[in-house]
Specification:
This protein is α+β, with helices and mostly antiparallel strands. The chain is 32% helix and 15% strand. It contains 19 helices and 19 strands. The chain has helices spanning 2-6, 9-16, 70-87, 98-102, 143-149, 153-160, 170-173, 201-219, 242-255, 266-273, 311-324, 339-352, 463-472, 477-484, 499-510, 532-543, 553-559, 572-579, 581-584; strands at 20-25, 29-34, 41-44, 47-50, 106-107, 167-169, 182-185, 188-189, 192-193, 231-236, 260-265, 279-284, 289-295, 298-307, 362-368, 376-382, 487-490, 522-523, 551-552. The protein has a six-stranded mixed sheet, sandwiched between helices. A five-stranded mixed sheet has the order 14-13-12-17-18, sandwiched between helices. 40% of the residues are buried.
Length: 585
Amino acid sequence: MDYLKTVVPSQLLAERGSNLVVINPGSANVRIGLAQQDVPISVPHSIARRTNRVPKMDVQDQALNSKVTTAQYMDREGAYDIISSLLKIRHLEEEVEDNQYLQKMGRLDAIAPQNNVKKETVIPWTNVFENPVSSSSVEGESSSQKEANASSVDEEHIISEQRYKESIFGDEALRISSAEPYCLRRPIRRGHLNISLHYPLQQVIEDIHAIWDWILVEKLHIPHSERHMYSAVLVVPETFDNREIKELLSVILRDLCFSTAVVHQEGLAAVFGNGLSTACVVNIGAQVTSVICIEDGVALPSTQISLRYGGEDISRCLLWAQRHHKTWPQIRTDPIAKPIDLLMLNRLKELHCLFREGEVETVAVVHSYEDGAPSSSHRTKLVALNVPPMGLFYPNLLTPDVYPQPPRTWFSDNEDVLEDTSDFSRRPDISDGYYPGSGGFFPMWDSYPVYQSRPKKQECIGLAEAITESILSTPRIELQRKLFCSIQLIGGVALTQGLLSSVEDRVLHSIPSHEAIDTVEVLQSRTNPTMVSWKGGAILGILDFTRDAWIHRDDWINNGIHVGSGRKYKDSYFLQAQAVCYINN
């Protein structure tokens, strides 16, 4: 304790964070970094593997995608009309003067470059070839040596011949032309492992291992020979179930060869990342939005709600709105089949979409990416830029069923995770009284209610209703009032201008009139919302001095989850709860 009173925070980070790797996987991106770092390395959670399959699939899971049905299209138009009335803009049925926009559109290729044209917005195609063996070494040789090597010209030509890379990772994997012999794989989809008939579990796990190992070696410079000297903190989304967490732990401990690991939830880590103890955490990610309440450093699983839409759905809605208003150029833009188009739409969304009443328009440069051809630029007028973000409150506008989650039948886990495991021997370094035999949990949990093992999911409601329902599911009015005044927004969409005030206003109006609550406040994040969960995981890992709940590699490989108890953990909620019990003791 004397050490904790005198140590400087920077010294604590340097000493305890130098061999601690924090991994925060998501549907679109994975954030990995050493706990002592200020920011993690964020990489698109994608891998492109070379394939000779005929016919070739550009995206591994493209068979799961669907087209917008007539009913969905009508629901989307109805949601647009409701939003347009609220924002005081024109409705869909109102006539659009095409000439007004055609005058604003044109190819930039034939126009002299100007200072206001942002050339850096062009997304380049990925070079799919390995670096050829340089033949410059033969330069400077004597004439006799050159004559001797003249007979081997054909061999040198073969050596210097370009060869395809077998695997391409991260951002480069999303920028590969469909004309190249590659298939894009995204191992996590809509908050779950992307397991389906077309993408079996073994391939998903192999791809996760390959992506994470590439980041560790190429970005963090942690070779395989030194991996046993590092520990890992796995910060998982609330949408993950027991089976998925077990698979990721196996990747970390068995395949990546970390010595120890611990699991935390994103919501819990986000609270600690912002220096709080109680909050309603709203994580608006790329493909999934989740809501969960945290009380005194403990996640309340009965309050967890998952919504199957996120930032990428807003990007696709942006494209739909422009096409409907006939402002989009006559180019082939397909964000589902062409990942590079989704990258462009995400940039446009981040730059121009916001929450505000009235007409919101701008002139922007969009690009056309045809297979194997250089990109072409088009200047056009974008309209109704405040409509797509409103899909968070009116999800029918987003039609997330076009990009559905993987079939859940592949995630059935029939293992009884509370079964007796009498063959497990208690670890000698932990006292018998620390883990009561009645439930396998700490004594501090005796006063807490037993929650259902499967969190409830409401996938067809808006964000404001989900926040209200989550908070009102807590049992005490005092806690409810505290949570309504401690709403925390994280994720990439949380950076959208005007979102905080919009959430406050709509959550306040969604509270039933008979509830004695009249104040709603969304807290400003102290850390970048996109990495606050990663930062919280680093803090939890550094401050966990006892590491009683950490899982050792040998124990995991031999016995599974086994931390000094004769029983396995009930589920991931108790798994993360035991890791932070020392904070409340």
